[in-house]
From TrEMBL:
InterPro entries assigned to the protein according to its UniProt record, in alphabetical order: BRCT_dom, BRCT_dom_sf, Fcp1, FCP1_dom, FCP1_euk, HAD-like_sf, HAD_sf
Ranges of residues in domain FCP1 homology: 76-245
GO cellular component terms given for this protein: nucleus
Main location: nucleus
Keywords, ordered alphabetically: Hydrolase, Nucleus
Catalysed reactions, semicolon-separated: O-phospho-L-seryl-[protein] + H2O = L-seryl-[protein] + phosphate; O-phospho-L-threonyl-[protein] + H2O = L-threonyl-[protein] + phosphate
UniProt GO MF annotations: RNA polymerase II CTD heptapeptide repeat phosphatase activity
Listed name of the protein: RNA polymerase II C-terminal domain phosphatase-like
The species this protein was found in: Lithocarpus litseifolius
Keyword Chloroplast: no
């Protein structure tokens, strides 16, 4: 394997060695095998830095791409993606303030003894509070993802915290912990350190600014602020309020549900282009297209139909829409239907929802934006009117259209042809 490890060589002085890659160095790499201190022995071009089992490894671009491809294919065969987790204020909150420090005896009597821990090292004493639901979160996420940790804290700190987060060493393998010593910049995280194809990687973090180069992969979460902070006096901590996040309705349960949706959409068997073309960036881009919209499919699917197996339903889910079958629990904004009667147009006008054709969802999906169309009138036909119909105008228009037997026959023929073109199951 074309890998040279630099740690463990006495002559290497890492305190004086600048291992930061030069800007735009991607095109400067070579295919020679021997790498020393980040540079090719033959031509002195830069290699790529990677973290493996707590060591810095330098790989040329060819080897890095090969490992990424091989390891990613293994995960995809097991229907797994990659999840990179931040530590502080995402999974835990910690403090060194003396007023929060508890003795082991006090912790044994504490009502939060299962989630509140004391970490003692010669140079510091820290109280750690695990975010509610974190153990269940890790257990369920590990069935869908290969889990990494990426923190701006030191490696010794990260390893100490994993003793409380993962005492059985099930989720965080030593080789998948990326700490401050491994980062190119101490205030910037990078997925370049993860040897997996970035199209299948999600990063879960409470800080957006540290993922400047990988924002498209970021799932941003609310900061977990359990202890008071001397640096941020504007936010009242949960401990000061004598409360905590809820185990069932808090941040991590909601994030887990979102991850389940993303995982299901990524491995959607109905996706036309195939798994090799799936990309979390496209999934994230589509998740906001129909945000705020509630769709009804009651005229498309019978009540006993497995809607989750429908390409049409999965498209709407990926676009961020919510669903309602009865218009009672959640007032609908759009009714998806092949055609509608005059009475249904009247209902749409009274209930203030929009009648849309299934092809409208398809148009939104491939445009990666909400497809806005101008409805036609009997005097101003539009080839896109079959996709989106404004209720008020549709009522007037279709009362006139439905009176014409020829128009009805043509509409029926169009609907039959469209059913054949649009695979919804």
């Amino acid at each position: 394997m074309k890998i040279i490890s630099e740690r463990g060589f006495p002559q290497d002085d890492y305190d004086d060695y600048d291992d930061t890659l030069e800007e735009n160095s991607t095109e400067e790499t070579c295919e020679h095998l021997c790498v020393y201190r980040g540079k090719c022995v033959s031509c002195e071009r830069l290699a790529f830095k990677n973290v493996h089992q707590g060591m810095w490894l330098w790989l040329n671009k060819e080897e890095m791409d090969r490992i990424r491809k091989v390891e990613s294919e293994k995960l995809l065969e097991d229907k797994k993606m990659v999840l990179v987790l931040d530590l502080d204020q995402t999974l835990i909150h910690s403090t060194e303030q003396e007023k929060y420090l508890r003795t082991p005896q006090e912790l044994m009597q504490h009502e939060l003894r299962d989630s509140l821990f004391r970490s003692s090292r010669p140079w510091e004493k820290t109280m750690l509070k695990l975010r509610p639901f974190v153990h269940t979160f890790l257990k369920e996420a590990s069935t869908m993802f290969e889990i990494y940790m990426c923190t701006t804290g030191t490696r010794s700190y990260a390893l100490k915290v994993t003793e409380f987060l993962d005492p059985e060493k099930v989720y965080f393998e030593y080789s998948r912990i990326i700490a401050r010593e491994d980062l190119f910049e101490t205030d910037e995280k990078s997925l370049d350190l993860v040897l997996r194809e970035q199209r299948m990687v999600l990063a879960l973090d409470d800080t957006k600014s540290v993922w400047r180069k990988n924002e498209v992969n970021l799932v941003l979460v609310k900061k977990y602020h359990y202890f008071n902070s001397d640096d941020d006096l504007s936010n009242v901590s949960l401990s000061a309020l004598k409360t905590d996040e809820d185990e069932t309705t808090g941040t991590l349960p909601a994030v887990l549900e979102e991850l389940k949706v993303i995982h299901r959409l990524f491995f959607n068997p109905k996706f036309e282009a195939g798994l090799s073309h799936r990309n979390v960036g496209f999934i994230f881009a589509r998740r906001s297209v129909l945000q705020g919209c509630t769709l009804s499919f009651k005229h498309i699917f019978p009540s006993d139909f497995m809607r989750e197996n429908s390409r049409l339903w999965l498209m709407a889910e990926e676009l961020g829409a919510k669903f309602s079958m009865d218009n009672l629990l959640y007032p609908i904004t759009h009714m998806v239907t092949w055609f509608a009667t005059a009475e249904e147009f009247q209902e749409a006008e009274l209930e203030e929802f929009i009648l849309v054709h299934p092809k409208w969802l398809r148009a939104c999906y491939y445009a990666v934006s909400r497809f806005t169309l101008i409805p036609c009138t009997p005097w101003s036909p539009s080839q896109t009117a079959c996709l989106l119909i404004e209720p008020a105008l549709a009522l007037r228009t279709h009362k006139l259209i439905l009176r014409c037997p020829l128009t009805m026959a043509l509409a029926a023929r169009f609907i039959q042809a469209d059913v054949a073109k649009l695979d919804i199951v």
